[in-house]
Amino acid sequence: MPSVRLPNLMKYYVDNQREIAVPAASVAELMDNLLAQYPALRPHLFDAQGSLRRHFNIFVNGANIRDLNGMDTPLAEGDKVLLMASAAGG
Amino acid sequence: MLPELSHEEILRYSRHLLIPEVGLDGQRKLKNSSVLVIGTGGLGSPVALYLAAAGVGRIGLVDYDVVDATNLQRQVIHGASTVGQLKVESARAKMLDLNADIQVDVYNEPFTSENAMRIARDYDVLIDGTDNFPTRYLSNDVAVFLGKPNVYGSIFRFDGQVSVFDARRGPCYRCLFPEPPPPGLVPTCAEGGVLGVLPGTIGTLQATEALKLLLGVGDPLIGKLLLYNALDMSFDFVTLKKNPKCRVCGPNADIHELIDYEEFCGVPGHDHEDGSAGADWDIEAPKLAAALSLDPSLFLLDVREPHELQISALPRALNIPLGQLASRLSELDSAREMVVFCKAGTRSARALELLVSAGFKKVKNLKGGINAWARDVDPTLPIY
Predict the structure, then answer these.
(1) At residue B209, what are phi and psi to the nearest 5 degrees?
(2) Would you call B40 helix, strand, or coil by DSSP?
(3) Please, is B7 exposed, middle or buried when counting C-beta atoms within 10 Å of its C-beta (0-12, 13-18, 19+)?
(4) In chain B, how many domains are there?
(5) Are the Cβ atoms of A88 and B271 closer than 8 angstroms?
(6) Which of B210, B236, B265 is the last residue of a domain?
(7) Does B246 participate in catalysis according to the annotation?
(8) Would you say residue B87 lies in a domain?
(9) Chain A touched by B41 (CB under 8 Å)
(10) Is B344 part of a structural domain of the chain?
(11) With an 8 Å Cβ cutoff, are B130 and A82 in contact?
(12) pTM
């Protein structure tokens, strides 16, 4: 099944895991299943209208889903999903 | 015409001259080039030191801050002897000690929409070593408008990001992040901390990319972004493309000049904590001490992370970390007077907003947090 890697900051909401295997056939399904399992993530990832917050980017095997099929991007066995948030520290 | 190197310079740069990709001509190119380092903190420290050592002819430093003791865990260009000095002056002295043949121009001022184009115009490469979102968007837009590469790095705890944004050849920062996070959702290093060596790792990568750009060698990190995690020792590369909807570098761009970046981001252009929720909601540490002596049962809510309580704590305070507050409101009595605090007052100000929006009315924010309490009321507690 595909796996998703979250920013370090998010690991507190997912039992300190960095990478989580999530059964899903698309990015949307992966997010649904991830949030069903870890509802505390929702306000961090999605705004009140249910859209992914715009300081997040989702990559599938290194490609931005914006350049693929967005949340409908299909996922296959072994695909690596990466959730990246902007960070300002310097 | 590239400048000549003196015999002393040839000796100094001997290890560069031996590399075919640099050689004598490359070193002369570096001597003829200029880099603006925006921010002289965690990232700016290694960037400025290594670019100075490498012989970049002119290096500009922008920072308005002074060196303080909490900087020294990671900002290695400064030292105990320069605490209290202007960061740009502290950094310049160290750079010139390392290499007196270069020129270091200092701008002891915040990088703002008013001065940014003037300051950045005469440099070949910009380096984003800032610590806040407004200045990151500003640095990006300046680079796009002036047609210069912006070597980007950012850090938080154990995570780092590096890329080269050059809108002429690839995406810009706004292509990737069209909007900043909502205020308060992403903690700063001042709130959340950062591993001291992390800016060393990320800053030296930024310095490497800058040298490659100046020399015109190798593959710059344009259209790619490196995500580094120190705990996993993982280096992940992702591909970035130009965003056709980008408001500064896309085909239908509608932002053609610098804007008000603090307004755009909803946060100030620095990562200092002012620790205030507004005059109506704040209580100063000495006033809280007086209130507690009259009513020792006054309810105190500590919204820091549990590990911070080992550093300093107030007796009888209930600890609910800010991230858990929304789901634990039922543990609190809205009829009771309450003072919320954290390290320096920023997280507690956010907690206060949350409490007020949930109907709590008798809430105050300890201005300046437990650090202000340690400074003004109980000096036996450490300040962190």
Answers:
(1) -65, -40
(2) coil
(3) exposed
(4) 2
(5) yes
(6) B265
(7) no
(8) yes
(9) yes
(10) yes
(11) no
(12) 0.92
